[in-house]
Amino acid sequence: MGSKETDSGERQAASDLSRWQVPAGGKGFTLAQCDPSAQPLTYPTKAQTKAQVTELASEIDRLQNLFYADGRFALLVVLQGMDAAGKDGTVRAVFKETSPLGVRAVSWKAPSDVERAHDYLWRIHQQMPRKGEFMLFNRSHYEDVLVPAVGGALSPAAARQRLRQINDFERMLSENGTVILKFMLHISAQEQRRRLQARVDDPDKRWKFDASDVRARGQWAAYQRVYETLLRATSTRWAPWTVVPADSKIHRNLIIATLVRDKLASLKLCYPPGDPEIRGLLIQ
Amino acid sequence: MGSKETDSGERQAASDLSRWQVPAGGKGFTLAQCDPSAQPLTYPTKAQTKAQVTELASEIDRLQNLFYADGRFALLVVLQGMDAAGKDGTVRAVFKETSPLGVRAVSWKAPSDVERAHDYLWRIHQQMPRKGEFMLFNRSHYEDVLVPAVGGALSPAAARQRLRQINDFERMLSENGTVILKFMLHISAQEQRRRLQARVDDPDKRWKFDASDVRARGQWAAYQRVYETLLRATSTRWAPWTVVPADSKIHRNLIIATLVRDKLASLKLCYPPGDPEIRGLLIQ
Questions:
Q1: Which of A77, B2, B34, B116 is the most exposed place for a label (fewest CB within 10 A)?
Q2: Torsion sign over Cα B277, B278, B281, B284
Q3: CATH topology classification for B27-268
Q4: Which of residues 221-260 of A touch B (CB under 8 A)?
Q5: Of B257, B266, B228, nearest in space to B95 by CA
Q6: What ipTM was estimated for this complex?
Q7: A107 to chain B: nearest residue by CA?
Q8: Tens digit of pLDDT per residue, chain A (284 long)?
């Protein structure tokens, strides 16, 4: 994932992060190995960490312009995680500097009647980024495995079939120019409790609280099990998963901003030459 | 447009801007009255002007969160203007601080075959913001009057019919909760020449240059005439036009950011109370 152009300090950072990438095929990966409170990238102070995230966000904005001009690729960033894992916060922190002309975000909710009358990838396909665009998925097609598998509506065999279909779908996207990065925001049950409690207690946040969050929390172990299966089955060369320790918001932002920046830098983007005929043209 | 909550200095600012709003019905309005180099809002230094734009962009981001939580309105911002008038730059400067989850932008291009096989508002309607969302139009359905009217494909009577249809369409949107702000970015022919020349001369900008820009420039007077007709016919109580003097980029940004902020502040947005049942709930 590290780009050759980065200096040695940054190569070091990228290599520290590589152990959080789920190996293609999932061999040897367990979610239990991943400590939600880990901080694989650190700066001496909190202020320096925040400043680095801001710097990376500006760099991602500059790279977005180049990405658009270059026009060869589209970028899909998938964010998954338990309730309150920080998906919204990640979108805000990492892509806030990017012009709305270059980035779109979709928060996937339960499908509508019309959507439910199609295969589960139908609505997903419609929201794919065009060339030159970043698309951020807050939740994704992975919910179509997670939720029914935990709830018992999807048998293990049917879940395996969906995971294979997703791999095939993502491979097709990748072969046609969509760069895919998938992040599982990994928080601890204690940290989730703290964040949900804050939503209950703060009158300005109470509207965000949904009773279904508490239900899903009651199925914590089942969700972790299905997540592990899903991460192992769908981390591929063309669409790798990274587990992001997410108990600390600023360290979560730092990791994701670093990996997005590194990926963009590795694409060797360049400005198209423009029509050679207009060289030296004088506008009247 | 000025909100009652703003302090008296800001009320002053808003009232200085009111003369740039095209009166509903267009009575007495001419584009020739509008000086593209005017700076109706000013701060003592360029650095202070820029800082004010950044402050307004942050305020718009905070108001976006509240706008989403409130959930009663959608916001449509229409940006029109000649090539190089600064539509992209406005999106970037005014909405860069806003999370991609709260704002979307569409750059309208020539319609596809499928789009052309429908009425001209069909594709526009599909891209309307949902409640809680900001949508930014870089160009818009107004191009479906401008381009054919200048090119001669639309008779004056057919153009008047479209303008009436647009008023009816925008009224329906407004009556169903979409707040509409329309900005005509008004630059001088000299400033456009300077900006297009910069695209030709800068190797990193050359890819942006399109030969059709020069053709449209050759029809400058015709475009200005159709713009004047259009602004007079479609500035309404429910969807007013503001002519924005746009020869100076930072002053253009300052005007638009001020008017967007003022409009949002005038909506008396508030957080919904949340389910009273969850008050005092302890998360296990």
A1: B116
A2: positive
A3: Rossmann fold (3.40.50)
A4: none
A5: B257
A6: 0.80
A7: B101
A8: 334 444 445 545 655 899 999 999 999 999 999 999 999 998 999 999 999 999 999 999 999 999 999 999 999 999 999 999 999 999 999 998 999 999 999 999 999 999 999 999 999 999 999 999 999 999 999 999 999 999 999 999 999 999 999 999 999 999 999 999 999 999 999 999 999 999 999 988 888 888 888 888 999 999 999 999 999 999 999 999 999 999 999 999 999 999 999 999 999 999 998 887 888 888 88
Q: Which of residues 186-215 of A touch B (CB under 8 A)?
A: 193, 196-197, 200, 203-204, 206-209, 211, 214
State the nearest Cα–Cα gap between B200 and chain A, in angstroms. 6
Q: Select the residue from B97, B99, B135, B220 to test the A interface by mutation, using most A Cβ atoms within 10 A.
A: B99
Tokens of A173: 């996207």
In degrees, rounded to 5, the angle at the alpha carbon of residue B134 between the alpha carbons of residues B132 and B139 is 150
How many CB contacts within 8 angstroms connect chain A with chain B?
121
Burial of B153 (0-12, 13-18, 19+ CB in 10 A): exposed
- For residue B259, the one-letter residue type is L
Give A-chain residues touching B69 at CB under 8 angstroms. 207-208
Give the N- to C-terminal CA distance of chain A in Å, as an integer: 48
Q: Does B69 touch chain A (CB under 8 A)?
A: yes
